[in-house]
User: Fold Recombination protein RecR from Brevundimonas variabilis.
Amino acid sequence: MAASAGPEIERLIALLAKLPGLGPRSARRAALTLLKRREQLLIPLAAAIQETADKVVSCSVCGAPDTRDPCSICADTHRDNGLICVVEEAGALWAMERSGAFRGKYHVLGGLLSALDGVGPEALRVAELVGRCRGGDVREVVLALPATVDGQTTAHYLSERLAGSGAEITSLARGVPVGGDLDWLDDGTIVQAMRARRPA
Ligand SMILES: [Zn+2]
Assistant:
């Protein structure tokens, strides 16, 4: 009993199943919901995805996704240029912005160093970060990286690379749970961790 839904729908399900948190079963349910709610969901979602694909680029300064380059945060003259918060991915940046705890600029690494997965510094936006700190205008670099082995390895590496740049290197205080991704923290925890940051 091959209950195939037709190649287009099967392709939609197969793509949805690649999203984090969605296995084949939930992808099937999501697809069904989209098909049932054509006007409210399917068509607006298709348009939003197309528009994102057409317009979103990586900011050439910080690496965050935005529709303009430099991104709205890098272009914001009210934010502190002397303070750079380094995050693994944009999800952590968004969490930090939701918390309202930080009024400086960001730098999105695009991943973490990982001996296991063979990720070296050249695969991340490390050279760009070093370049931003070279001018002497950056007073402090806050390493807001996960409290995992890779996160801490990356933090240690960045501290060494940025030594001598003139910027103080700090990292978020504990309270960030070990193994915790910033995206999963509540805003209050992020605010506390940012206030109580310490030398890295
Ligand atoms: Zn930017």
User: Anything to note?
Assistant: The longest strand covers residues 80-87. The chain is about 40% helix and 15% strand. Strands lie at 57-58, 65-66, 80-87, 104-108, 140-143, 168-171, 198-199.
